[in-house]
């Protein structure tokens, strides 16, 4: 009897040690995979126009650090986002058009919606490859606790759940650590920068993903005092200088830590500029934020990765924020989700300079609104100008059915639909197919349950305030 018991115990011990060994091998394998992967930094600005950088043609805004990135990296001239904040951020997190992931509006603090827990997010995927993940700045994908970035793949969060002008606070992970009654960007941006620099330094020996979601240059413009009056373009120029300084500080930190060549650094804006207030500039494009004219959805983008991306490279293909998730998966060595439609494409071969003949995307489509296909752009509904001055009628609308030749007319000024009925028909058909496919394969935005959620939030806030 005793011998049998010892035999059973021995088997259990052998089995346990084998399981332990397997776990160790898997764990060490994962670390081995992760250790040689590059870091990824996404610096996303808020409402910066296509023409709001020196390297994208501005003659009055000074952006020496960003210009340097551009000179050493790849410039994307046809990079698309959505026309406003939350949808672009949702597309970055999901690799899918915001329409597919269920939200095309700005998520405000009164809304009971946010990113769906069923989404497989960019940071979740990178975490599965052994990355440490951090977000600094503006989240804007739901204000409630359940939507907090640390519940959606981020190990670290320092910043705001929504826009500062909605009266919120600064969070560190799940906790609100500072109350903010009014928007004072300039006061907070050094704190954001410090948090980002701290995150880089803490993780200098393992791969990390840092999403620096700057609240600049969103209105109202309140530069930090050290930048006030430093530009040729008034307060807006001062804020752009501050952004540029932040980019420079992050690059300097990477350099100090010996990580420059081990880091893919991406700079982009979340949507076009706010026009009509002596501020942002959409460069050669029509209109700005809140519209699907090029000025609203085409933004500056630069990717910098010395030793991998050829300095001074240019990408004139249709690309977009949706491409970041599959590209990051390729870099990290993990598969994107296969149980759902991901709209983005892996552009890593293009970053490496491979001679790939197939286009990244044939089209960029805003479902039910516009389709860009090659040089052509068709509006399938009337487009109104964006923002206040748009509503006041200072800038014109464009009728449904307008066709623009973006190569000859990037400013979308001449409707050539009458000259090209076959192109109009082709693009209309492509839009119909895209909308049909989207309706069959879209996913819902996350929603709070109807029960007492608002009461819970108020209580939580009260408790947090008491703890402060
Ligand atoms: Ca924005």
TrEMBL record:
Biased amino acid composition, Basic and acidic residues: 411-421, 448-468
GO terms, molecular function: arylsulfatase activity; metal ion binding
Region feature Disordered, mapped onto this chain: 384-421, 438-468
Source domain of life: Bacteria
PANTHER family referenced in this protein's UniProt entry, alphabetically: ARYLSULFATASE FAMILY MEMBER, ENDO-4-O-SULFATASE
Recorded family membership: Belongs to the sulfatase family.
Protein name: Arylsulfatase
């Amino acid at each position: 009897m005793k011998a049998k018991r010892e035999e059973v115990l021995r088997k259990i011990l052998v089995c346990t040690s084998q399981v332990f060994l397997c776990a160790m091998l898997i764990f060490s394998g994962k670390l081995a995979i992760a250790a040689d992967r590059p870091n990824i930094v996404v610096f996303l600005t808020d409402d910066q126009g296509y023409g709001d950088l020196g390297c994208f043609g501005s003659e009055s805004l000074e952006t020496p650090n960003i210009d340097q990135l551009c000179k050493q990296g790849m410039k994307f001239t046809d990079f698309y986002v959505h026309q406003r904040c939350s949808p672009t951020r949702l597309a970055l997190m999901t690799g899918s058009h915001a329409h597919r992931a269920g939200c095309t509006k700005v998520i405000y603090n009164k809304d009971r919606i946010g990113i769906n827990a069923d989404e497989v997010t960019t940071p979740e995927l990178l975490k599965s490859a052994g990355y440490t993940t951090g977000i600094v700045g503006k989240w804007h994908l739901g204000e409630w606790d359940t939507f907090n970035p640390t519940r959606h793949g981020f190990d670290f969060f320092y910043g705001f759940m929504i826009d500062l002008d909605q009266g919120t606070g600064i969070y560190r992970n799940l906790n609100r650590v500072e109350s903010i009654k009014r928007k004072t960007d300039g006061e907070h941006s050094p704190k954001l920068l410090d948090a980002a620099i701290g995150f880089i330094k803490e993780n200098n020996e393992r791969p990390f993903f840092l999403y620096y979601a700057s609240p600049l240059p969103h209105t109202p413009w309140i530069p930090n005092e050290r930048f006030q009056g430093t530009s040729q373009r008034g307060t807006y120029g001062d804020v752009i200088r501050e952004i540029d300084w932040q980019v420079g500080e992050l690059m300097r930190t990477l350099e100090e830590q010996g990580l420059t060549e081990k880091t893919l650094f991406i700079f982009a804006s979340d949507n076009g500029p706010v026009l009509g207030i002596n501020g942002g500039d959409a460069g050669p494009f029509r209109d700005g934020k809140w519209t699907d004219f090029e000025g609203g959805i085409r933004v500056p983008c630069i990717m910098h990765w010395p030793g991998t991306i050829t300095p001074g490279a240019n990408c004139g293909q249709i690309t977009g924020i949706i491409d970041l998730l599959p590209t990051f998966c390729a870099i990290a060595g993990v598969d994107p989700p296969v149980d759902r439609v991901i709209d983005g494409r892996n552009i890593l071969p293009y970053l490496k300079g491979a001679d790939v003949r197939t286009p990244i995307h044939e089209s960029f489509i805003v479902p039910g609104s516009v389709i860009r296909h090659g040089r052509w752009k068709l509006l399938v509904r009337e487009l109104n100008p964006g923002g206040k001055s748009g509503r006041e009628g200072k800038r014109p609308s464009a009728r449904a059915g307008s066709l623009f030749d973006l190569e000859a007319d990037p400013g979308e000024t001449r409707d050539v639909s009458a000259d090209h009925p076959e192109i109009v028909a082709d693009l209309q058909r492509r839009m119909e197919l895209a909308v049909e496919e989207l309706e069959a394969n879209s996913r819902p935005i996350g929603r709070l349950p109807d029960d007492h959620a608002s009461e819970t939030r108020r209580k939580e806030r009260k408790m947090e305030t008491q703890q402060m």
